[in-house]
Amino acid sequence: MVILYAFPAVLYIGFMAIVGLGSVAPVAWLYVILLAAAAVLLSKSRWWGSLPGMAAGALLAFQNAVGIALVVYYAILGIICYRRKK
Fold this sequence. Notes:
- α1 (2-19) packs antiparallel against α2.
- 79% of the residues lie in helices and 0% in strands.
- The protein is mostly helical.
């Protein structure tokens, strides 16, 4: 299950490595920090750890459709984590 939590962060970091770290906009580092925080908190079974991931998705939703997918993805993970905790 931990792989599901870290998947978006790893994908985003991999994309940044391919593009080149110097050419990445500073706001992209904010996305990486939010996605990494969500991955760590969700891996510790904190349902509210999905909130940083949803925040990153909400910020990205203003730019493209990937953000909407991230919001839905982290909302589902938060619900799963919450129900597993009970």
